[in-house]
Design a protein that fits this description.
The protein is an alpha+beta fold. The chain folds into two domains: about 60 residues; about 140 residues, Beta Barrel (Porin). The chain has an eight-stranded antiparallel β-barrel. Strand 6 and strand 7 form a beta hairpin. The longest helix has about 45 residues. The chain is rod-shaped, with a radius of gyration of 33 Å. The chain starts with a helix and ends with a strand.
């Protein structure tokens, strides 16, 4: 009889510990969810108009989690309220900084997705040693970037004759790093140009260019780039123009 009584006491004691441990876990989980909700509401109050929409979605999700948890583990009516541990102090500048970082990450993710599509760019500098300016479109594919556009250049040929050139060009480029690489992204590009119109109301013939370029993000949706290389512009009836390519440009996602 005494052994049976002792066994019952031990079982009761173990069950009691299990119940207490489970109750503690439920209370701690409930407090954690509540603290997270309070923190989201605090960040939402400091957010700008665009970020408020994002924060409100997160708050709605958190409230739904809390409601589901409370339905599964209802609080005991007679249980004394446990004091909530104060949230860690956050410097006033930390919240705006965190929101800004999240906004930049979101824009960068959108930009990376759009980089699979089309970009538009402008550049100025030298082509075949002639001053010029260019307008280009760039289509991005998994295997590389296809560039095409128009340009204007003016310079003296080897005989000292000054000519103006309206050019169209097509080139293929490929980065040495992934498109979403943070930092300076080197790439190579080769292509053809056609001298569609030159001084004297004449058209020329095909030329070519080969460049080594460097690209860096200016913002999550735009970038600056530098092209260095060699180019040839041909008239077909007078000396060719050839020499250094050196162009600096700006490109943005459409």
């Amino acid at each position: 009889m005494k052994k049976l009584f002792g066994c019952m006491m031990i079982v009761s004691f173990v069950l009691g510990l299990a119940v207490v441990s489970r109750a503690d876990w439920i209370d701690e989980k409930r407090e954690k969810l509540t603290r997270e909700l309070v923190e989201l509401e605090r960040l939402e109050a400091k957010a700008d108009a665009r970020q408020k929409a994002v924060m409100r979605k997160k708050i709605a999700v958190m409230k739904a989690r809390i409601a589901k948890f409370n339905s599964e583990y209802p609080a005991a009516a007679a249980a004394p309220a446990r004091p909530m541990a104060p949230a860690a102090a956050v410097p006033p500048s930390a919240a705006p900084k965190a929101i800004k970082v999240e906004a930049v990450k979101e824009k960068r993710a959108i930009a990376q997705a759009k980089r699979r599509g089309m970009e538009i760019g402008v550049s100025a500098g030298l082509i075949a040693s002639m001053p010029g300016a260019f307008l280009e479109m760039q289509n991005n594919f998994p295997f590389g970037e296809l560039k095409y556009g128009v340009g204007y250049a003016q310079g003296d040929d080897s005989e000292g004759t000054t000519r103006k050139h309206a050019l169209v060009f097509l080139s293929m480029a490929r980065r040495f790093t992934p498109a979403n690489f943070q930092g300076v992204r080197p790439y190579w590009a080769i292509g053809l140009n056609y001298n569609a119109y030159t001084s004297g109301q004449k058209s020329g013939s095909l030329g070519y260019q080969a460049n080594l370029g460097f690209e860096s993000d200016l913002s999550p949706t735009s970038a600056v780039y530098l092209d260095l290389g060699y180019g040839v512009v041909r008239t077909g009836f007078s000396p060719d123009f050839n020499g250094v390519n050196a162009q600096i440009g700006y490109r943005a996602i459409l």
